[in-house]
């Protein structure tokens, strides 16, 4: 019999972490949702617990209000406690599972796993929601024991609606850990599980990022508007809610660029990686904070 997951920690309360926390709570799991202490707090705010945990609280609030419908029933919000990674990290010791959903960069993720190794119970499972960083690299410096209970749980956005959960297992992941996560994913969270390989961007994003960048190149080179491309890749292709540029705005252009950059640098042959080169046009949008739905808009103005 696999041991059920009753308490989970989610680290990173952005688009994905808040959605994952909401989905877990909806399934009756207690969640501790942590984000960093916001930089640039005033001296008074530095002593204020609410201000120190503002990022996590804000992420949860966004998940509660998320469109097209609320991510989960507001009364389930009581199952989620919010906090920050300076004051509440030790509380992760009470969790059966911790899901990492922070920025898609190798170094911050590695630093976080090193901290988790210090505090977690020996039987706690650790998962990364990375879009495509390799397990082998994320686990550099971690013990054999930590590697046994680590795997990738790649949720898709929006977590509440997307049925797919891509699981990627490392060479050292314990089959009992996989069985535990599989039960959670299928029986408790209602996801359809697919196993990917530990390759750059796995399957979901190797294809998804390629398709998105192809749409961007077509828009720029052929002088098309996002609406023109979306009219073809959306309803006409039976994807009413996931046309190319609509999806880009939901994902977030900063995250999208990190995912594409990581894939570009992980692939060795020019013919494999050239399509993952992010155009200057997208870098300018990111500089202008046109990141998509999480800001004032991206390809589309926020509704
Ligand atoms: P996001 O930018 O919306 O949120 C990231 C959050 O992590 C922010 O709130 C940030 O303050 C926090 N953070 C950054 N460094 C931290 C640290 N060291 N400790 C704690 N919190 C930290 O990003 P997102 O879109 O939610 O992506 C999170 C992860 O999920 C990434 O690995 C991304 O590749 C992956 N992912 C994203 C999508 C998507 O559609 N956006 C889909 C699947 C997977």
TrEMBL record:
Residues 202-301 form the 3-hydroxyacyl-CoA dehydrogenase C-terminal domain. It comes from the Bacteria. Transmembrane segments: none annotated. Residues 8-198 form the 3-hydroxyacyl-CoA dehydrogenase NAD binding domain. This is 3-hydroxyacyl-CoA dehydrogenase / enoyl-CoA hydratase. The chain holds residues 1 to 303 of 793 of the full protein.
């Amino acid at each position: 019999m696999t041991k059920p997951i009753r308490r989970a920690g989610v680290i990173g309360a952005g688009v994905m972490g808040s959605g994952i926390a909401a989905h877990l709570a909806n399934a009756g799991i207690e969640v501790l949702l942590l984000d960093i202490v916001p930089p640039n707090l005033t001296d008074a705010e530095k002593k204020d617990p609410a201000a120190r945990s503002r990022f996590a609280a804000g992420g949860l609030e966004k998940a509660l209000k998320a469109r097209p419908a609320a991510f989960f029933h507001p009364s389930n919000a009581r199952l989620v406690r919010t906090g920050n990674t300076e004051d509440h990290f030790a509380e992760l010791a009470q969790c059966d599972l911790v899901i990492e959903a922070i920025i898609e960069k190798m170094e911050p993720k590695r630093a976080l796993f090193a901290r988790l190794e210090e505090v977690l119970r020996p039987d706690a499972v650790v998962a990364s929601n990375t879009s495509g960083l390799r397990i082998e690299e994320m686990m550099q410096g971690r013990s054999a024991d930590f590697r046994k209970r680590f795997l990738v749980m790649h949720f898709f956005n929006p977590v509440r609606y997307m049925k797919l959960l891509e699981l990627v297992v490392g060479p050292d992941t314990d089959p009992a850990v996989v069985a535990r996560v599989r039960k959670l994913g299928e029986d408790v969270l209602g996801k359809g599980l697919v196993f990917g390989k530990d390759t750059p961007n796995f399957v979901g994003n190797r294809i998804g990022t390629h398709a998105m960048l192809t749409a961007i190149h077509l828009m720029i080179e052929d002088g098309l508007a996002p609406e023109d491309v979306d009219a073809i890749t959306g309803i006409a292709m039976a994807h009413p809610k996931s046309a190319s540029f609509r999806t880009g705005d939901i994902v977030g252009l900063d995250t999208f660029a990190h995912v594409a950059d990581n894939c570009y640098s992980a692939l060795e042959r020019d013919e494999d990686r050239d399509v993952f080169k992010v155009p200057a046009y997208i870098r300018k949008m990111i500089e202008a904070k046109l990141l998509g739905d999480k800001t004032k808009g991206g390809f589309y103005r926020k509704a």
